[in-house]
Protein 1
Amino acid sequence: MIYYSLRRLFLLVITLWLLTIFIFLLNYLFPGDPLTNMTGIRAGDEFAYNIARQAYAFDQSIFTQYWHFLEHLLSGNWGQSLVTQRPVFDDILPLLGATLELSILAMLISLVFGVSLGLYAALNLHRPADTIIMGISLSAYSVPVFWLAQLLILLFAVKLGWTPISSQINPLFDIDVVTGSILTDIVLSDVPYRAAAFADALNHLWLPVIVLAVMPLTMLIRITRDAMLDVLQKNYIRAARARGLSEARIMLRHGLPNAMQPVVRQLGLQFSILMSNIIIAEMIFNWPGIGSWLVKSIYERDYPVLQGGLLTLAALILLVNVLVELFHAWHYPQVRKELYAER
Amino acid sequence: MRTLAALLATQCLFILGCSPPSEEIAPLEQGLIYCSEGNPESFNPQLGTSGTTIDATSAQIYDRLIDYDSGQQQFVPALATSWEALDKGLRYRFHLRENVAFQSTPWFTPDRQFNAYDVLFSFNRWLQDEHPYHDVNGGQYPFFVSSGLIHLIDRIERVDDHIVDFHLVRPDSSFLANLATDFAVILSAEYGAELMHLAAPQQIDRQPIGTGPFQFVEFRKDFVIRYTRNEDYWREGPYIEQLVYVITPNANKRMLKLITGECDVIPYPLVDELAKLASDTEIEVTSEVNPNIAFWAFNTEHPPFDQPMVRRALAHAINRPAIIQTIYNGNARLASGVLPETSWAFSEQDQTYPYDPERARQLLAEAGYPDGFSMDIWAMPVQRAYNPNAQRMAELIQSDLARIGVNADIVSYEWNAFRRRLARNEHDSVLIGWVADNADPDNFFRPILSCAAARSGSNRANWCDPEFDKLLVDAISETNQAARKAIYQDIENYVLEKVPLVPIANSLRFQAHRSDIKGVELPPYGGLSFRKARKVAPEDMTAGEPKP
């Protein structure tokens, strides 16, 4: 296991390193001055520009330049935005919080409902319940996120008036942005109307969370169902039945834990899909997260921000995938066996 | 299983969250949400000309020396209590108001009240090249350059703490009008000195301090601008505790958010959806006569638009009445010249070219383009009071031009990038417009067509004609209104002859708000003011109505 973990972590570091090279090269590929693209300091501001030139070693070879770029990157100096002149790194953290809040909630919901519905469908194989669940999940899977979001907004916000259309909270609630995750920020703040603000934030939250949860939910339903059907064929289930164990015990003690193995393996991939959907959802719901920030930076040709957003999103996806793989290998010994046998 | 139950419990919380809280909560009752169409460029209107920046800052954070009352059509005191013209109009003396406090915020506590030094600081910042703040945050002051104010004011002198004298180079009848615009705001000299001491002068336009009704709290780009009430405001208002701008560039979303109650007031509602909005009893649509002009400007430096004959041909080629019908739904008047109907120098005479494709083709042939040519039409990406849909307008013009053999491409960029590229004159022609900052007819010509405007990059026709500039100077040096009117008619005819631009429409400015909001001022000249805005409870609304 240690060998495997080290190998995975090493791979992660290598991938991240390649990513920094790619981002470094982007500065030269974007139109304009590479140093301005990198730091957000324009040549017009001579004093600051010369300091940056020194700091990034722009009078030396490209390898030295990359080395200095990497140093700045690692020390959290990601340049400043060309539009707002604010440091990119300081702006990223609250945006990341807002994005993580959405993605974690969406992932949790899809996990809870996906697994339970998949299980239910597997136990009712070829009965109406199974057909209905599978039918709905397939059609929901086919609806693109941007379309689903518009439909649900039209229904729940405009027609029924149950929920607002956009943003994290009614902006009249003055909640200080600390982590970016609105629920956490409300708990941390000391405003007198915390309960009302919390309710309002939940009211803003549920629609984007549902929109985002639909895609992984439908996938997880199908994966769980197939995995469960697979497990139910296995000899140890038959043996358990033969020993006269209760059906509930068979399912919860023997069926489900084993069926979860392919589900866990899929979580990393589902998270990646969720992250690309979250960019769209954040734009539609005007969510102050890293996805909408990235898209706006593209519109405004704000290169330092664009790089920062790209790096953060890519690193996040890589990290989650590696963690899921490590958990998968740690929790399921048979996976490890497979891995070593391959070698 | 326990975790599963906990998750299900979270789920229930979600569902509980769906029902809106029944009792009213204080911040919701005492605040107002305005869904603005874009980000402000900065928090100092001196630095820009964009209407979005003006609406977000000028009347909220700052005050001016004098205000213009459009109802009474005269200048009224603001930070100056009275003023007089001396030395045959070469010197203006302003008596400043006493006991006016600057805003006190977490980052600045004023030690003194408003006085003559603040006036000097605010004006010298853009007047004097050597002023320590002149080059801070770009050092461009487009309004003051294009209106000519930067060359008109010779110097400003402090007589005592509450009297200042403005020395002018020549008498100018538009001087007071320019001082009453949203650009001539008063900043705090003390705050400037403190920031200089802290070596952070650029903060002056990012964390602004003024004397206005609202003080700045925070700005999150693309999301919100938050203001709170200035407790020590020197005149009436404000009545709301909190003013929040939610940045919503999409016009459709703005309208939906008004319907769901997420916005209290929205600018530029979609014209074709207006009827639907107006029938809703919760929403009121107001319109104001707005002194504006939508026009199609040619880059007169780019061939073939350097030939007046080509420009005249294109002016004949487009069907303007059809544009008015399609784009404005009849909510605008066909422009009969550059000046709108509301100006005192306006005349009934039609100073435009009629729709005549035959004549257009003939003129093109005479100019040496019998087979036409290719050109770009730049269309604004945003809605403005004068033009709710520039893209669609460009399409109409494109099809009109195809009829005379001219092949047009439509070009657009993000709004701030669009304006930057326009200032660099990268366009062939552009659909844009102008909203007057004051009631003086001069404001319709000098900021958009003079040589000074061409130099500062706000002359969309990139047109510099010394003869035209001479007429403008003649007009402002004249004090007799009838004589001035005659000169402005000559100017109109000169524009008609040279066609640097084709006037299209004068439109109304629309705004929609929830019916429990009262007192949002939409003055004809310049930006929006929330000073007298308030939220009335439903019971008050019925109580306020006269009983039979």
Protein 2
Amino acid sequence: MLNWTTKEKIIKNILMLFAFSSILFLTGIIIVLFREGAPIFTKVGISEFLFSSDWYPTYDPPGYGIFNLLSASIVVTIGAMVIAVPFGVASAVHISYILPKKYKNIVKPTIEMLAGVPSVIYGLFGMKILSPFLRGVFGLPTGLTALTAMIMLGIMSLPTIVSLSEDAITAVPKSFRDASLALGANRLETMIRVILPTASSGIVTAIILGMGRAIGETMTVLMVAGGASLFPSNILKPVRPMTATIAAEMGEAPVGSEHYQALFGIAIILFLITLVFNIFADIAQQRFKEKVSGE
Amino acid sequence: MNELKMEVKNLDFYYDDFQALKDVNIPLESNKVTALIGPSGCGKSTFLRTLNRMNDLIEGSRVDGNVLFDGKNIYDQDVDVVELRKRIGMVFQQPNPFPKSVFDNVAYGPRIHGLKDNETLEEIVIGSLKGAALYDEVKDRLDDSALGLSGGQQQRLCIARALAVKPEVLLMDEPASALDPVATAKIEDLIDELKNNYTIVIVTHSMQQAARVSDNTGFFLMGDLVEYDRTDKIFENPDDQRTEDYITGRFG
Amino acid sequence: MENKFTKRKATEKLIFWFLGLMMLSSIAILGIIIFFIFKRGVGVISWEFLISMPMNGMTEGGILPAILGSFYLVTGAILVATPLGVFAAIYMTEYAQKGKLIRIIRIGVSNLSGVPSVVFGLFGLSIFVKYLNFGVSILSGSLTLAIVILPTIIRASEEALMSVPDEYRSSSLALGATKWQTIKHVVLPASIPGILTGCILGVGRVAGETAPIIFTAATFFSMRLPKSVFSEVMALPYNIYALVATGTSPQKQVPIAYGTAVVLLVLVLLINLIAIFMRIKYSNKNAN
């Protein structure tokens, strides 16, 4: 029979193992990506891999340059943010600051609920409803274009950005607002001069997280971006972002082949980009906490 | 002086660099009520928590000196904290029943300590509720949530919960400060009743309460035990000028 | 003075009105998407559609295997992720002391939640499908999805545990309970509603995930229901993708895709709605 102190120690150590599971998986992901993907960097060379626009993995000789794919990811993400940020932040401001409480209690949960709509549903809508519409409007040969992907990704990111920005604005202490109103500022001036500056780093966190999600989003871009590995010089032409490339080609790349390695190579780049986004989001979040708590 | 249940000798207590208790010496007599008074932040609650080692839970805290319990220092290496807390019960400032039924709240302690037999359990629960002068009020709703009781009832439930593990000493940290006068009176009557079977140490910010319920009183100021004596002596003829100033309301 | 005052007021009104318009259009856009999916898909749905097998190369029949497949995958993922996440959260809130260790764990959780879903898919392919040789199967897919939702469950459990009042802990310890007894009998029961909410949100998320299962679990067309955890399965989200992106007879298959989308959407929205209501009810209860 164990005495209780030993038993407590054992339990504590077991729980600690569980707590490390996230680190374990994260490390596992990094190891797997590099083990499978790193060989392509030595074969092709990192600069060739990143900056060559020849993505011909099945040709002879093959080309493994992801410049067009990387550019497509970046352009589509920026385009999505151009759509999502104004709508998202404006909505968040309105919900948290202007909307009466009884409406807020309906609107906020509705938006949170919409945040759960699976990406494949957006993909279906973009592919079968938005894309024919855009083809008609612009007279295009195909409606599956960078613009279609931007619009769908932008809409998809909306709930995240609205919800997180709204949290940030609501977290600004009421006393700040009251102090400004008591000095004779009206609600708009208070919002512009006091609330938004205080909430800004929280809103930035929301936007960065939205961007991270957009650049890593797979199914929607796979379905609506058109899939051509062209440089995104015209948003009305099809493109092929990194995530779509991985999802579309992994099925046909033999395990361990150069093509397989190159797809893992893309995943490394993608992983690093989202890692950087995450770190920035964490920093912004930290700043926001300090500002609100006044430390 | 009567038999001593506990005796504190040269006790120092630190939160990191801050010394919260300075060389405290105090005897705690068996079957007596000892009241600890003093302005907020004087160390009286900290002191109370050194008596059942609840302060162990605070990161960066440190204890020097001896707290003798039946002659044995509770800060010795070989002391089992769990066993100690079983023998020295505690009642907190805010009534804090668990979100469980009345019965399960009182049965919690005995169950934790391995009692499974339902009949014995029921006996203990009813005995403890009677001991806390609560049984008649709750006997028909033992299975209802404890959170539905009034504040005063909740506090007596917490006392019953503490009694159920059959402690020898009962520590009370301002047990009536969150209660209305009627509930407070009930708690005070209960304390008077309980001292027949338990040694009681009570922290209170109300001097009237200390005067009403206690046999001995200790006055704390900024981590020092300024004066300790029989309660009537402290309130009628204190030795220390600072005690007199506090009692007469000149500060605090 | 009077004039300036009215101008200030007019500007305020105009801008607030504009913000309101932006908000309404945001909700409207999201609403339109759901509306269109329903409009095109509801007609396809019938009892037959839900409970029969697909036929003729996925051009006719129902989606029973996809519904069941999603159910197996989600159940598996939750069964794995819940204990892992809850125990991790217990360590983080109840045991870990402030300092480097807990910071590192937090960074791990937050970065894991930011990993793109397709990368999880690659990880699952490399570890579960190939290295551990589970093949493309329910097992591989469930394990991959479990990692995807682990951060969600850890965060929700952490929040739930932290909302348990400290008095519960100290009064249990004062009764001579050990730390683990206190957690098991007092802290954990009090945080169950919050943890449950987190798990339900996890279910909603996992049910719609596609990219992590493309290479680890999913198959486009199956004549049989899965026999064991080593069988590959059809799944609702993958079914939608496969029907519209790789289907060979669109006029027959696209309606099935819409029908599947309605089933998935109703499921996910319902699950999220339950979670949100639970959270509102639970937080009100805690506030009182």
Protein 3
Amino acid sequence: MKLLSYITIITVGFILIIVNQTDVTNYNTVQDKVLQESIKRGNDVYADFCITCHLDSGEGVKNTFPPLANSDYLKTNRESSIKGLKYGLKGKITVNGKVYNSYMAPQGLGNDEIADVMNYINHSWGNTYGEIVTEEEVAKIKK
Amino acid sequence: MKQYKLILAMCFITTLACAQVQQKESSVKAEAPTTINYTTEVVVSELNIPWGMVFMPDGSMLITEKTGELIHFKDGKKTEIQGLPEIYLRGQGGLLDIELHPDYANNGWIYMSHASADGEGDGGNTAIIRAKLNGNTLTDVERLYKAGPNSRRGQHFGSRIEFDDDGYLYFSVGDRGSRDVNPQDITKDCGKIYRLNDDGSIPKDNPFVDTPNAKTAIYSYGHRNPQGMVKHPETGKIWVHEHGPRGGDEINIIQKGKNFGWPVISYGINYSGTIFTEITEKKGMQQPLFYWVPSIAPSGMTFITSDIYPDWKGNLLAGSLKFEYVERLVLKDNKVVKREKLLEGMGRVRNVRQGPDGYIYAALEGVGIVKIVPNK
């Protein structure tokens, strides 16, 4: 009888673990799918609004347009990066130890488009920068 | 035998891969000047994107900021002019070029280009307006042209304005990012140079006035995104430069009814490095006077005619957005024989013009407007 109890407990335990794991996996898949779709839309935004200056592989142009690929600025300044896309970015910024002093005009993008293109940039060319950027997060960022 | 085939196949693939990125560089390369015989003076400070500028008869200036402000700069002071129509701000679109009527002193007409959301479709497209300046307000605002349909794409509004010696008004509209739809189709706007009378009516001898369904304001077609336009001081012809994609920026002399080839022929490739056309020449399509590979991203264009720069007289200047310099192009029999970088590293050059005082003015993004002053 004691043995049966043990077996039951262990079995229930296993089931719980499995169910739990499935839940986690499902959750990740959903999140991942949302991110992947956002990245895909972001690719189109990038090709339309960003590529002329920051180029196809996010490498930028020496001394003029800072790189987006492997950029410490993007990695550590999530809010200012979003703010820059939303309202423009003027003055000195340091990217990978190099000072850029120029002006990026606001592109007139919607909050959804800014979220998408941020997700594209944050997950392209080897970048893996942080959590998904959402439309709500962009909406909250003020000038 | 098998190995031999494999090597052959590999050679073939390698050749293909190389062919994708092989581009013929410009025949003449841009050089740094050997001696710098000039300095610069900041004339107007603190501007963001000074897209267009004109010099008024009283020595003041009108400056367009892309974000939609028209600035009157007089006696060292900036005043914002009211009364602009609604400006559509997206991507490369906004308040763009400005030009005075050749007889401005008598009729007061000021011409401007801007992106507008009016008309058919979601998004915006290039509009040409004219207006008069009364105090600090624009009055008598008239719209002369609006390209359509609207598009949400951010690219290629064109928008430079110029008048020729007969008083015709020319302006450019870029392909609006629809490369394979607009530029080669004269029944559609975009990817074109247009010619109008100064009141916006269509000249009777425009090239496509008798072509069914054609946009009759079109003067030439097959353009990508012209952002430099200037009348040649001697021939009176309209010179234009335009952005290519990755490589393939061009200088062209505009001719009536001619096809300038975009995107059927081009010296450029896609931003990704892949090709969109195999050919650079085709019968019935004009060759550029000059092409830039790599691209300099040219914006603004002027001829030097003044005696202030004796060594530079007759040269063409073009701004480079990408490499932050003003390019001085020495021409001989309509061929570029020398290229030199001026004002290197001062800022992205959006516009360059010779003022009525004979000095060269360059509009730099994030900096303002500077004047080139020769050393004594």
